[in-house]
Sequence to fold (69 residues):
Amino acid sequence: MTKSQESGDNELTDEARREAARTGKDLCAILAARLKLAKKANDKAQVKKIERAQKYLGCRNVRKRRSSS
Fold:
């Protein structure tokens, strides 16, 4: 049996892509702003969803990837 790779794509990635196309902002900046609001509201489930979307889009741990190159 093989395990299928889990997709990180969720409704937040779709919403962020639509907003980025509409406003011209960066996807990572949009998700970072949403993450800040979710943390402020102490919504742990939303924080996890946003972090998963950031990982899927390559917005998390950017400094780690740049420093190792």
